[in-house]
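Data availability (excerpt). All sequences and predicted token strings are deposited with the supplementary files. A representative entry, Phosphate transport system permease protein, is shown inline so that the format can be inspected without opening the archive.
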Amino acid sequence: MDKRYEVARKRQDMLGKVIVFSSAVLLIVLVISLFYFVASKGLSTFIVNKIPLKEFLFSAEWRPDREVPQVGALPFIVGSVLVSIFAILISAPLGVSSAIFMVEISKKMGQKILQPAIEIFVGIPSVVYGWLGLSVLVPFISKHFGGLGFSLLAGILVLAIMTLPTITSVSADTIRSLPVEIREASYALGATRWQTIRHVLIPAAKPGILTAIILGLARAFGEALAVQMVIGNRPVIPKSFLEPMSTITSIITMEMGNTVMGTAWNNALWSLALLLLIISFFFIILIRLVGRRGMYR
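Structure token line:
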């Protein structure tokens, strides 16, 4: 009886190891295959169509349907950077402040009201944010600030709202996970609650807060639909917050279905997708580097 049980246990252990190992291998193969496929398509712009990398990255002319295609990606790169950075500049202070309030100032209100609200915000589809921005925000900007309303400002505000729950929830989890001892030690030395928050908790949670901000930035950079609905989608570098513009994700989603596979236009869009994939990898590496610093010293 004992031998049968031992044999059955070993078989179960072996089966579990095989399933876990196979899943890990499958995941690695999928990631490598995805990168290889996008890279093979994206590099065609420079290998097949002979377009210089410098021209692709730093030219502001986007006329891929011409006889001599011009596929300068600079307007989309600048647009993605501007809309993402300014959105994070708005959502990061609000998100971290909300996390501090939820964890340290009013825990009951945070658990009963703020936490459920944040979870609801996280679950809202991006198309709903875009529709609300199109229906409310764009007319408001057009009426009170001028222009058509489709603008960099509209994209910034929509993305700020979309990234706020991510930054808030991750920052709150980080602050909540700090040891109680560092709070008690601060109070024992005579520090007030605000002094403890400012000089003890925030520095101790800095790596986690930075991770939350980077996650929000990655979410903003990769967002397509909601931004596309409110920015106007004009392939130019915006000179003000009220001008229409375009991003990497929006130009891909708008034009990929209108191109023929293998053409310079289609290859240029794949090159933009490759650029976006590389930027995503950069954010992942950055998060790993920040996470290695540890929660507190």
